[in-house]
Design brief:
Blueprint (H helix, E strand, L loop, with lengths): L1 H11 L45 H4 L11 E2 L14 E6 L4 E6 L12 H8 L8 E3 L21 E3 H10 L3 H11 L5 H15 L21 H12 L2 H7 L3 E4 L10 E4 L4 H4 L3 E9 L3 E10 L2 E10 L6 H14 L7 E2 L19 H7 L8 H23 L19
Antiparallel strand pairs: 1-3, 2-3, 2-10, 3-11, 4-5, 6-7, 8-9, 9-10
Helix pairs in contact: 1-12, 3-6, 3-7, 4-5, 5-6
Length: 416
Amino acid sequence: MRNRLLAAASSVLLLPVVVPASPTVAAPSPTVVPCPQASVPASTPSRPPRPSPPPAVAADQVVGGEALATPGLVVPADGAQPPEVTATSWLVADLDTGEVLGACGPHEYATPASVQKLLLTAALLPDLDPEQVVTVTKEDLDIEPGSSAVGLLVGGQYPVETLWLGLLLQSGNDAANVLARLGGGAEGRAGGIRAMNEFAEQLGARQTHAVTPSGLDGEGQFTSAYDLALIARACFAEPAFQRYALTETHQIPDQEALGRKGFQIQNGNSLIDHYPGALGGKTGFTMLARHTYVGAAERDGRRLVVTLLGAEARPLRGWEQGATLLDWGFALPRDASVGHLVEPGELIASPSAPPAAADTRAAAEDSLPDGLTGPGPLLVAAVIGVGGLAVLFVRLARRPRRGPGRRRRGRGRRRA
């Protein structure tokens, strides 16, 4: 009889014990702090339906720091509340240190409008000879009717420097096409756009994709406030851009062969006229993107940049909203930070590391019967089996000839 009991007890350990898997408890979602929003006048024109952005990639959302992975507000804990603006997303950063001082939805997708021209500039400005004279073609003037243009003429000949000034002062979409074609080499304009996207990748601007060189709306064309700050930082590192961005007027040369006189263009960025220490920037607008803006200024040896997307022009215009955010940034301590702008090339994948050792837990899960989902249930099953065996041994040990028996203490359950 005793042998039969022992055999029965040992068989407990050989039988699979099915324990229902514990329901997965979702991690609590981080609290989203709403961004301070200015009231928009009721008469504001309706915008076209927003295009569907690409699916969010978790790794892209945390570029520059985990605190930036929010659709809401992120500011220093001890800092003042930022001003109310109509922009749907914005960011303020230090141009020199790369520290992000504050942001609203920094990694939220948005359409760029003409601030896209900064990506064209950052990608191609260092490689084009400013003194080279380029002849404009009919295809260069293939732009949306009524959109901003310098007024270039088919067959007209213009120095590259004039084209850059026409791009940055007048937001010329015609100049954007010429420069993209020139920078694209044998591929023409398509090659210039490809160079823009490759440069964005090099910068770490993973949420930016250019479809047009000018920022005129195109399917699949997006950027973010964070990416714009990376692009602006690259622009302001170029001495030629710094000079162009502060140029107030420029004379477009005569085209004698075409019988046309030259004319003057003016800088459309009012920040340089009204904000002390302004370094320049770029304005943008389409019906889809609404108002977009990039601006920078220097104060007490500190250079800050502001980017904003999806703004309305009332109660404050884009550059004015940028100015209020710059004021807010300059008022913060110099060591204030909620993240950083990555350096060019920082996110480029390094050579693959040797594969890690196989995870034995995964193999264990694959071999479990339905209802067992990992090492935790296996431990539970083992404890139950050992406990059953212990009970039988205790019963046998109660025989008088062995004297008083002691119960084993069962092991406490461990959570995997």
